[in-house]
Amino acid sequence: MAESLKMDEKQFVQDLLAWDERQRPMEWLLSNLALVLGVVVVLVTIIYTLRHLTDRLIFWVTVPGFVVGVLFVGFYFFAGKRVKERHRMASILKKLGAA
Questions:
Q1: Distance of CA 73 to the CA centre of its chain
Q2: Using one digit for the tens of pLDDT, what is the confidence trace for 10-41?
Q3: Contact 88/36 with Cβ under 8 angstroms?
Q4: CA-to-CA distance for 2 and 65, rounded, in angstroms?
């Protein structure tokens, strides 16, 4: 026979379901915005570098531009993965009727 949820477990489930309804769309939007921003930063860096090829510019613009772009894209992957996993868990809990 299955045990019923303890009070803290029930609170966790309710918090997760509330997050899924209210905060998931905003976190998903921010994640996608980070991807777009990362791609724009990398493209602007590439275009600017190709127009002004000097050693000094490459060191002070290209390297930081790529680092910032990669950080934004990395944020997209990690935040997107977190949002997908939490949404999947919330949908499973809804189907099981745990709320």
A1: 9
A2: 899 899 999 999 999 999 999 999 999 999 99
A3: no
A4: 54
* Cα–Cα–Cα angle for 31, 20, 15, rounded to 5 degrees: 120
Distance of CA 24 to the CA centre of its chain: 10
Please report the DSSP string for 39-83 in residue order: HHHHHHHHHHHHHS--HHHIIIIIHHHHHHHHHHHHHHHHHHHHH
Nearest to 66 by CA among 40, 92, 86: 40
Q: Whole-model pTM?
A: 0.81
The tally of CA atoms less than 13 A away on the side-chain side of residue 80 is 12
d(CA 32, CA 41): 14
